[in-house]
């Protein structure tokens, strides 16, 4: 009643800021939180606060209609002088816009005097009160939020209920000031925010747009999908959050904030979920209850030959961490005349018939994927590798640098190419070592113990072709593996050992001890205490080339319900792992020819 008596409340609940038919405002409420932080520490910045100044010349008896033209004018002059900001650089003013004609006129006339002198284009003005009403104690913060929206999006939200300019404001009539009545582009990066309050209180803030891509290096300009992980107490709540996320415009800063919010787990949050943004044609989201009382161990599984494919690293290079890892590998092999980037992006048919390309390509992809996992805080509790995948074990275990790993892979390929070897072949067969060891001809060896139901054979090409034909005829699965006509992990590769050992000794100058988490698949368990097994040495990795791959035996050390992350260009071992490790969670990081 007092407000109505004072004539400051609108009769029709419409706030007609700056309009000639304005008759007051309507009261409303808002809750606003602003977070101020030093620019160098800010991870998410909407704008920089250049300057803010306030002035109070009244007391509790002073009302809006006693607004002082001179006091407000002096405040604006001092603000821009102290900030050393040219008034002509202001692109937009978020005004008080009280919708009381007298106060609106005083405010805009002062803005005209201070900010429009010698201005060649109209100064845009607006007031969020026309949209939300007067939120009283939070009104200035609401005005700042609107200014931040304009700076962040580059679009100024329009005023409502503006029909004709206030006749007491010549600058509105002449066009020097222009009320924003339609969404328009913000042409500039500095805005001002006015405040006129009860008791003769005045304020002005100058805000500058944040140049995100220069200042915030965590903001990426790309089209990469973002994995958002969430947790909470109720399934319905998480499903609602995911729905809202999928309906929102994709914003990398917001994705980063969500990661930060849900990084810390709570024991009370027994529901977990995830989604991938932007939403794809097929939804990739899931919510489920999680009742485990202990964390599951994470194991890295490095697969080897057969996981390579044309163009396997092309899209992974969009990830900065991965690209940086490849740059290190590229530099390490520059003197050899080898381009790692070309190897992992090449789509030429038959490119991987060259075994050196295969070894180097697989190693480079594994270095990049390990770096990605480490960058997001995923460290292994256990590590196991298949064949040349043990180079990846050495890297993940901290025994190799990226340069040492890629050079070791190069050495393996170079030794294979330079050595005169018989024409050989390898093939995956749907029988385990114990099932097939007494069936194979003397010229063929079991090169890899994959699982109780799978092994890989190695031997001379003619003998292998003959035997594999018999296996298939018996209705047993058998598939050739592209190993560039070399019978690895058998007696036929032994002539390459001296060259490989020599090359590795040039690369691995200071062999590091292998940790207990790295389970050897190239040395039998009864020899794990031997000097050969103790370090990631040239001798260890030469032995890896010569001896059978004891992957089945090594996998028996993996605890039940572990999380197995296969690290390779393609999840080659998934079928084997899912059959042999039925209680584990199996995650392949990549898939052959997968678009992402």
TrEMBL record:
<dbReference type="InterPro" id="IPR014030">
    <property type="entry name" value="Ketoacyl_synth_N"/>
</dbReference>
<dbReference type="InterPro" id="IPR001227">
    <property type="entry name" value="Ac_transferase_dom_sf"/>
</dbReference>
<dbReference type="InterPro" id="IPR050091">
    <property type="entry name" value="PKS_NRPS_Biosynth_Enz"/>
</dbReference>
<dbReference type="Pfam" id="PF00109">
    <property type="entry name" value="ketoacyl-synt"/>
</dbReference>
<dbReference type="Pfam" id="PF02801">
    <property type="entry name" value="Ketoacyl-synt_C"/>
</dbReference>
<protein>
    <recommendedName>
        <fullName>Ketosynthase family 3 (KS3) domain-containing protein</fullName>
    </recommendedName>
</protein>
<dbReference type="InterPro" id="IPR016036">
    <property type="entry name" value="Malonyl_transacylase_ACP-bd"/>
</dbReference>
<dbReference type="Pfam" id="PF16197">
    <property type="entry name" value="KAsynt_C_assoc"/>
</dbReference>
<dbReference type="InterPro" id="IPR032821">
    <property type="entry name" value="PKS_assoc"/>
</dbReference>
<feature type="domain" description="Ketosynthase family 3 (KS3)">
    <location>
        <begin position="1"/>
        <end position="209"/>
    </location>
</feature>
<dbReference type="InterPro" id="IPR020841">
    <property type="entry name" value="PKS_Beta-ketoAc_synthase_dom"/>
</dbReference>
<dbReference type="InterPro" id="IPR016035">
    <property type="entry name" value="Acyl_Trfase/lysoPLipase"/>
</dbReference>
<dbReference type="GO" id="GO:0004312">
    <property type="term" value="F:fatty acid synthase activity"/>
</dbReference>
<dbReference type="InterPro" id="IPR014031">
    <property type="entry name" value="Ketoacyl_synth_C"/>
</dbReference>
<dbReference type="InterPro" id="IPR016039">
    <property type="entry name" value="Thiolase-like"/>
</dbReference>
<dbReference type="InterPro" id="IPR014043">
    <property type="entry name" value="Acyl_transferase_dom"/>
</dbReference>
<dbReference type="Pfam" id="PF00698">
    <property type="entry name" value="Acyl_transf_1"/>
</dbReference>
<dbReference type="GO" id="GO:0006633">
    <property type="term" value="P:fatty acid biosynthetic process"/>
</dbReference>
């Amino acid at each position: 009643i007092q407000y109505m008596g004072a004539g400051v409340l609108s009769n029709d609940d419409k706030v007609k800021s700056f309009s000639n038919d304005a008759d007051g405002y309507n009261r409303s409420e808002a809750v606003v939180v602003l977070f101020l932080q030093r620019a160098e520490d800010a991870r998410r910045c909407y704008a920089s606060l250049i300057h803010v100044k306030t002035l109070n010349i009244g007391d509790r008896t002073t009302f809006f209609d006693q607004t002082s033209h001179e006091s407000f004018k002096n405040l604006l002059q001092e603000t821009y002088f102290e900030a050393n900001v040219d008034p002509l650089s202001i692109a937009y003013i978020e005004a008080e816009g009280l919708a009381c004609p007298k106060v609106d006129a005083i405010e805009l006339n002062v803005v005209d005097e201070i900010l429009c002198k010698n201005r060649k284009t109209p100064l845009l003005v607006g007031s969020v009160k026309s949209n939300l009403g007067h939120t009283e104690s939070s009104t200035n913060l609401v005005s700042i939020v609107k200014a931040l929206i304009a700076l962040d999006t580059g679009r100024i939200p329009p005023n409502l209920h503006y029909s004709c300019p206030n006749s007491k404001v010549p600058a509105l009539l002449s066009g020097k000031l222009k009320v924003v009545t339609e969404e328009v582009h913000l042409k500039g990066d500095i805005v001002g925010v006015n405040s006129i309050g009860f008791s003769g209180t005045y304020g002005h803030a100058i805000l500058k747009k944040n140049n995100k891509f220069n200042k915030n290096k965590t903001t990426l300009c790309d089209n990469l999908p973002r994995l958002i992980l969430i947790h909470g107490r109720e399934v319905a709540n998480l499903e609602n959050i995911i729905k809202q996320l999928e309906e929102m415009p994709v914003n990398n800063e917001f994705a980063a904030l969500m990661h930060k919010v849900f990084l810390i787990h709570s024991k009370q949050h027994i529901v977990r979920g995830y989604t991938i943004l932007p939403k794809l044609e097929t939804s990739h989201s899931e919510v489920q209850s999680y009742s485990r009382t202990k964390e599951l161990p994470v194991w890295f599984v490095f697969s080897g030959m057969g996981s390579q494919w044309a163009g396997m690293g092309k899209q992974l290079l969009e990830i900065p961490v991965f690209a940086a890892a490849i740059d290190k590998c590229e530099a390490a092999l520059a003197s050899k005349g080898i381009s790692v980037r070309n190897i992992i992006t090449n789509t030429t048919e038959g490119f991987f018939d060259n075994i050196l390309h295969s070894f180097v390509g697989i190693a480079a992809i594994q270095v990049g994927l390990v770096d990605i996992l480490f960058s997001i805080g995923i460290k292994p509790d256990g590590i196991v590798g298949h064949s040349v995948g043990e180079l990846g074990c050495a890297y993940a275990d901290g025994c190799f640098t990226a340069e040492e790993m890629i050079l070791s892979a190069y050495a393996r390929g170079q030794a294979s190419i330079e050595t005169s070897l018989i024409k050989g072949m390898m093939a995956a067969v749907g029988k385990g070592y114990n099932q097939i060891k007494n069936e194979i001809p003397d010229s063929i060896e079991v090169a890899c113990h994959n699982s109780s139901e799978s092994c890989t054979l190695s031997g001379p090409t003619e003998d292998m072709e003959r035997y594999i034909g018999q296996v298939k005829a018996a209705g047993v699965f058998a598939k050739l593996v592209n190993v560039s006509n070399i019978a690895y992990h058998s007696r036929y590769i032994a002539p390459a050992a001296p060259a490989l050992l020599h090359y590795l000794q040039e690369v691995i100058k200071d062999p590091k001890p292998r940790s207990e988490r790295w389970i050897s698949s190239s040395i039998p368990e009864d020899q794990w205490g031997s000097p050969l097994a103790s370090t990631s040495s040239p001798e260890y990795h030469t032995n890896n080339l010569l001896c059978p791959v004891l992957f089945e035996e090594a996998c028996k050390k993996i605890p039940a319900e572990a999380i197995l992350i296969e690290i390779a260009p393609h999840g080659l071992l998934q079928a084997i792992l899912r059959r042999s490790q039925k209680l584990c969670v199996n995650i392949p990081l990549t898939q052959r020819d997968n678009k992402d």
